[in-house]
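Quick check before the chapter quiz. The format below is the same one you will see on the exam, so make sure you can read both the input and the output lines.
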Amino acid sequence: MNRWSLWRYVPPAGPVLSLLLIGLVVLSALLYYRAVKIQRFLEPALALSQPRNEFTRNISQTFQREFGALQVGGLQARTSSIVIDRSLLFTADGALRPSSTVIIKRLSRLFLSLLGDTRTRNNISIVLVSFRYPDDGPKLAIIAGREQAQQMAGLLQDSLYEAEPELGAKYKAYFAATVQPEHLRRGQSGVIELRIIPSELLHIEVLQKLVKYTH
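Here is the expected output.
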């Protein structure tokens, strides 16, 4: 059998191309169907996360404007809170360090900027100036640590108002000084957390975006 006789068993080009085109159409339809299903799943998820993401992004961007050029170890933004090593602002006996003035000034400007924006302010319920104290050890030491933490929390809150008087004059109702116990390992320093608690309006905005997917 020569090679020319083998061509008799090769199907015509027309039907082969037709089958290929049909296969491509079926594959495209399948991919489109799956893409639509994925989109229907992702859209509600994105709608749920968008208001919260915008809220945290606004906080992060404002933080970067104030502290981006100032390299400070022991100070960082985490989602909707700012965490600071206590030793960065306070001495061991609970007094403010002279070097804390620059950081407190920038923190005051940060909160003044956030609260000065109507949309952001509507999504803020309260800002907790939260200090932690060790809850292990002798009872008298725990009580003394809690009292010192309460004094420092109030001192930092008042210092924020003094650094930017407009902050205290207009937005004092948005701040609260608080303390919370924490089990500290030996050698670990306490931290200060300026926690921004979202308001109910942020959750309402999430529900409003979700409404159109429930029909």
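If your answer matched, good. The radius of gyration is 30 Å.
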